[in-house]
Structure formats: structure tokens, C-alpha cells
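Internal ticket - ligand job 178, S-adenosylmethionine:
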Amino acid sequence: MAAMGTEDDRLRMYCCDIFKMDMESLGKFDAVWDRASLVAIYEEDREKYAKVIKALLAPDFRYLISTTQYTPLEVYSGPPRNIPTALVEKLFSDVCELQVLEETTRPKEVIEQWGFDYYVETALLLTPRPPDYYSRVALIPVQHPSPPFVGPGRPHPRQARADPNTRQAIDCLSSQGR
Ligand SMILES: C[S@@+](CC[C@H](N)C(=O)[O-])C[C@H]1O[C@@H](n2cnc3c(N)ncnc32)[C@H](O)[C@@H]1O
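stdout (C-alpha cells):
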């Protein structure tokens, strides 16, 4: 793995096959900007690629992906390859929540000239999915008396609030006087 960096070591660049990286030596990343990367990966390597990226994410990561979506043609299927948002969800939803930030389309004439029926570029933001146990722990109020929300092994209120289903369940239980 060839690496080079700035003198202050704030920026390092690696030149290597992503699938042959020494993952341990890289550490974790707060932010990933996936620009023309997932769309360039071979279809058969996508699961492997997602596994690599997920292993590199720090706990409170932000992962930005730009994708292209179109109906592949017999004469052209990329790269950039067609990456429907549902596919990103399938690859990453075990640990990420997904938000579509922007969807843009090219002018109709350009799309027709390229031979596509549609061509959409999408910016997606992936953020940590709260672990299931937050929901389970947050539903503890069914016990009597209700334990406080803040404490060892309990989610911080911000995390409890972040999950609308949990919040709804808590509100519902509270309104029933439990
Ligand atoms: C379309 S280019 C995008 C480059 C850059 N991110 C940009 O936005 O201009 C896709 C890049 O992915 C690189 N690539 C594809 N498979 C790779 C792999 N297994 N490991 C590392 N790089 C890979 C290619 O060499 C190419 O430089």
C-alpha cells in the first residue's frame, strides 16, 4: 500500500486496491465522501466494498455518497453504473440511516442524446443507525415504577428522541398513564 501525506500529517493519500488495504492501520474515519466510487465498483464487488467502508466508519460518522440512476442500455451500463437508492439502502441500512439530500436530472435533450429514458444524480447522506437496543431499553417504562431515561445502560434523551417510533411508543404509553 503506497501512502503519502502532508508534513503536518493532517492529510494522507493511499494508492492501493481498496480490497487489499491494511484496514487496521487506517483507523476510523468521521467522514467519507464517496464521489464516483460506489458507482465505479464492479457489481460483484459491491457487498465487499460496503463491508470495507462500514469497517472504516467512526461511531458518529457522516457518509456522503453521490450516485447515478438510469436504465442501463445494452451498449452502456457504466461506469458510472446504475445505483438505485434502494440498493444503497440494501448495502448499508444494517448500520446506516439514509437521507436523500438532492436529486438532479440532466436536461431532457442531453438525456435523449445519451439514449437514456431518465438520468438522475443523487446525493445521499448516511448517518449511524441507532442500535436496536435503544428502542428496547427506551420501552422499559412499561415496568413499574418507570425508570429514568438517563443513567448507566440507558440511552441519552437525545438518542431516544432521535427515534420517532420509540418516541411515539413512549408518548403513547405515557398517555395511558403507565
Ligand atoms: C470514476 S473514478 C472517480 C475518481 C474520483 N473519486 C473522482 O471523483 O474524480 C473511480 C475511481 O475508482 C478507482 N477504483 C476502482 N476500483 C478500485 C479499487 N478496488 N480500489 C481502489 N480504487 C478503485 C478507479 O481507479 C478510479 O480512479
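Auto-summary: Residues 17-19, 35-37, 40-41, 79 surround S-adenosylmethionine (CB under 6 Å). Residues 164-175 form the longest helix (12 residues).
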